[in-house]
Amino acid sequence: YPNPSNGIVRIENFAMLKQAEIYSQSGRLISVVSVDNGTLNLGEYISGVYILKLIGENQTAVRRLVIIDEH
Fold it and tell me: Helix, strand, coil shares of the chain as percentages rounded to 5?
C-alpha cells in the first residue's frame, strides 16, 4: 500500500520477502529491486501501471501497482 502510489510502497504480511520484480503492462521485466524493511522505493518510475511480483522464501505474489508522479 498505498495503491496508487507516489513511488514509496509498503509491503506487509509477506514473510521472508527477498526481492521484488517490476514489469511493464506488456510483461517486460523492467527491474529487480531489493526490499528494505518492507519498503520499496520506486520514486524514479514515471506515472503508469506496473506489475509487481513479490518473491519470498516460500511464496510469490503478483499485484498491479499504479504509480502517480507528483512532480
Answer: 0, 55, 45
